Amino acid sequence: MAKTRYNAAVTLVEMLVVVAIIALLAGFVVTLTSRLDNQGKERQLAGIFSLLKSALIEYHDETGIFPVPDPNVAEEDYDEPYEHGELLYARLDSVVESREILRRIDPLFVKGDVGADDPLNVYDSWGMAIDYLYDPNTGNFPELLSAGRDKTFGTADDISSKEQ
User: Fold this and answer.
1) Whole-model pTM?
2) Which ranges of 64-115 would DSSP assign to H, the alpha helix?
3) In this structure, which topology does domain 12-163 adopt according to CATH?
4) What SS3 state is found at 54?
5) Which segments of 64-81 does DSSP mark as H helices, in order?
6) For the chain, what percent of residues have pLDDT higher than 90?
7) Mean pLDDT of 89-107
8) Average pLDDT in the 75-87 region?
9) 37: helix, coil or strand?
10) DSSP 86
11) Is 131 exposed, middle or buried (0-12, 13-18, 19+ CB in 10 A)?
12) Residues 6+ apart with CB under 8 A from 95
Protein backbone atom coordinates (compact mmCIF):
# COMPACT_ATOMS: atom_id res chain seq x y z
CA MET A 1 0.00 0.00 0.00
CA ALA A 2 1.39 3.43 -0.95
CA LYS A 3 1.66 6.23 1.57
CA THR A 4 0.29 9.66 0.60
CA ARG A 5 2.29 12.70 1.65
CA TYR A 6 0.65 16.07 2.17
CA ASN A 7 2.66 19.27 1.83
CA ALA A 8 1.49 21.70 4.52
CA ALA A 9 3.63 24.63 3.32
CA VAL A 10 2.29 27.94 1.97
CA THR A 11 2.91 28.59 -1.69
CA LEU A 12 4.40 31.76 -3.09
CA VAL A 13 1.13 32.62 -4.84
CA GLU A 14 -0.81 32.37 -1.57
CA MET A 15 1.70 34.66 0.15
CA LEU A 16 1.46 37.24 -2.64
CA VAL A 17 -2.34 37.22 -2.43
CA VAL A 18 -2.22 37.82 1.33
CA VAL A 19 0.32 40.65 0.95
CA ALA A 20 -1.81 42.27 -1.80
CA ILE A 21 -4.93 42.14 0.39
CA ILE A 22 -3.07 43.67 3.34
CA ALA A 23 -1.65 46.43 1.11
CA LEU A 24 -5.12 47.19 -0.27
CA LEU A 25 -6.63 47.40 3.23
CA ALA A 26 -3.77 49.63 4.41
CA GLY A 27 -4.38 51.95 1.46
CA PHE A 28 -8.06 52.28 2.38
CA VAL A 29 -7.21 53.06 6.00
CA VAL A 30 -4.64 55.74 5.07
CA THR A 31 -7.03 57.38 2.59
CA LEU A 32 -9.91 57.37 5.05
CA THR A 33 -7.75 58.71 7.88
CA SER A 34 -6.42 61.52 5.69
CA ARG A 35 -9.91 62.48 4.57
CA LEU A 36 -11.22 62.52 8.17
CA ASP A 37 -8.24 64.59 9.30
CA ASN A 38 -8.90 67.21 6.60
CA GLN A 39 -12.60 67.30 7.44
CA GLY A 40 -11.72 67.91 11.08
CA LYS A 41 -9.37 70.74 10.12
CA GLU A 42 -12.06 72.29 7.92
CA ARG A 43 -14.52 72.18 10.86
CA GLN A 44 -11.93 73.88 13.09
CA LEU A 45 -11.45 76.54 10.42
CA ALA A 46 -15.21 77.09 10.20
CA GLY A 47 -15.24 77.70 13.95
CA ILE A 48 -12.37 80.21 13.68
CA PHE A 49 -14.13 81.98 10.79
CA SER A 50 -17.33 82.13 12.84
CA LEU A 51 -15.56 83.75 15.79
CA LEU A 52 -13.72 86.23 13.57
CA LYS A 53 -16.98 87.17 11.83
CA SER A 54 -18.61 87.77 15.21
CA ALA A 55 -15.65 89.92 16.27
CA LEU A 56 -15.90 91.86 12.99
CA ILE A 57 -19.60 92.49 13.61
CA GLU A 58 -18.89 93.73 17.14
CA TYR A 59 -16.10 95.96 15.80
CA HIS A 60 -18.44 97.36 13.15
CA ASP A 61 -21.19 97.95 15.72
CA GLU A 62 -18.75 99.90 17.92
CA THR A 63 -16.87 101.89 15.27
CA GLY A 64 -19.29 102.02 12.34
CA ILE A 65 -16.71 100.62 9.92
CA PHE A 66 -14.80 97.40 9.30
CA PRO A 67 -11.02 97.41 9.80
CA VAL A 68 -9.34 98.91 6.75
CA PRO A 69 -5.67 98.79 5.76
CA ASP A 70 -3.45 101.68 6.81
CA PRO A 71 -3.87 104.35 4.11
CA ASN A 72 -0.20 105.35 4.57
CA VAL A 73 1.00 101.87 3.60
CA ALA A 74 0.79 100.84 -0.05
CA GLU A 75 -0.96 97.52 -0.67
CA GLU A 76 2.20 96.06 -2.23
CA ASP A 77 4.13 96.79 1.00
CA TYR A 78 2.03 94.28 2.93
CA ASP A 79 3.59 90.85 3.29
CA GLU A 80 0.34 89.06 2.50
CA PRO A 81 -1.42 87.44 4.26
CA TYR A 82 0.54 87.93 7.46
CA GLU A 83 0.28 91.69 7.67
CA HIS A 84 -3.41 91.65 6.72
CA GLY A 85 -4.08 89.22 9.55
CA GLU A 86 -1.91 91.17 12.00
CA LEU A 87 -3.78 94.35 11.12
CA LEU A 88 -7.11 92.58 11.60
CA TYR A 89 -6.13 91.15 14.99
CA ALA A 90 -4.74 94.49 16.22
CA ARG A 91 -7.86 96.41 15.17
CA LEU A 92 -10.28 93.83 16.61
CA ASP A 93 -8.27 93.72 19.82
CA SER A 94 -8.74 97.47 20.22
CA VAL A 95 -12.51 97.11 20.82
CA VAL A 96 -13.56 95.49 24.09
CA GLU A 97 -16.45 93.42 22.68
CA SER A 98 -14.34 92.13 19.79
CA ARG A 99 -11.44 91.38 22.13
CA GLU A 100 -13.69 89.18 24.26
CA ILE A 101 -14.64 87.16 21.17
CA LEU A 102 -11.00 86.89 20.06
CA ARG A 103 -10.15 85.34 23.43
CA ARG A 104 -12.47 82.43 22.59
CA ILE A 105 -10.24 81.35 19.70
CA ASP A 106 -8.16 78.35 20.73
CA PRO A 107 -4.66 79.62 21.64
CA LEU A 108 -3.20 76.98 19.31
CA PHE A 109 -4.42 79.13 16.40
CA VAL A 110 -3.18 82.49 17.70
CA LYS A 111 0.54 83.05 17.28
CA GLY A 112 2.84 85.91 18.15
CA ASP A 113 4.44 87.34 21.25
CA VAL A 114 3.14 90.65 22.56
CA GLY A 115 6.13 91.05 24.88
CA ALA A 116 8.58 90.77 21.97
CA ASP A 117 6.70 93.34 19.86
CA ASP A 118 5.59 90.52 17.55
CA PRO A 119 1.97 91.23 16.56
CA LEU A 120 -0.58 88.49 17.12
CA ASN A 121 -2.16 86.74 14.18
CA VAL A 122 -4.76 84.01 13.69
CA TYR A 123 -3.66 80.87 11.87
CA ASP A 124 -5.68 78.14 10.20
CA SER A 125 -5.61 74.43 10.98
CA TRP A 126 -2.75 73.88 8.52
CA GLY A 127 -0.50 76.46 10.22
CA MET A 128 -0.90 79.31 7.73
CA ALA A 129 -1.98 82.85 8.59
CA ILE A 130 -5.58 83.69 7.73
CA ASP A 131 -5.78 86.46 5.15
CA TYR A 132 -8.18 89.38 5.61
CA LEU A 133 -9.57 91.04 2.49
CA TYR A 134 -11.75 94.11 2.59
CA ASP A 135 -12.49 96.83 0.09
CA PRO A 136 -14.33 99.69 1.83
CA ASN A 137 -15.60 100.95 -1.54
CA THR A 138 -17.80 97.89 -2.11
CA GLY A 139 -19.60 97.96 1.21
CA ASN A 140 -19.55 94.16 1.33
CA PHE A 141 -18.74 92.14 4.42
CA PRO A 142 -14.99 91.43 4.64
CA GLU A 143 -13.65 88.09 3.46
CA LEU A 144 -11.44 85.77 5.50
CA LEU A 145 -9.33 83.40 3.47
CA SER A 146 -7.37 80.24 4.30
CA ALA A 147 -4.71 78.78 1.98
CA GLY A 148 -6.11 75.30 2.65
CA ARG A 149 -4.29 71.97 2.57
CA ASP A 150 -1.59 72.93 0.09
CA LYS A 151 -0.67 76.05 2.14
CA THR A 152 -0.58 78.20 -1.01
CA PHE A 153 -2.96 81.08 -1.67
CA GLY A 154 -4.60 81.40 -5.06
CA THR A 155 -5.17 77.69 -5.64
CA ALA A 156 -8.35 75.63 -5.93
CA ASP A 157 -8.28 74.42 -2.33
CA ASP A 158 -8.41 77.91 -0.76
CA ILE A 159 -11.23 78.20 1.76
CA SER A 160 -13.20 81.44 1.98
CA SER A 161 -15.46 82.62 4.78
CA LYS A 162 -17.97 83.58 2.08
CA GLU A 163 -18.41 79.90 1.19
CA GLN A 164 -19.62 79.06 4.69
Assistant:
1) 0.77
2) 82-93, 96-102
3) Glycoprotein, Type 4 Pilin (3.30.700)
4) helix
5) none
6) 41
7) 91
8) 66
9) helix
10) H
11) buried
12) 58, 59, 62, 63
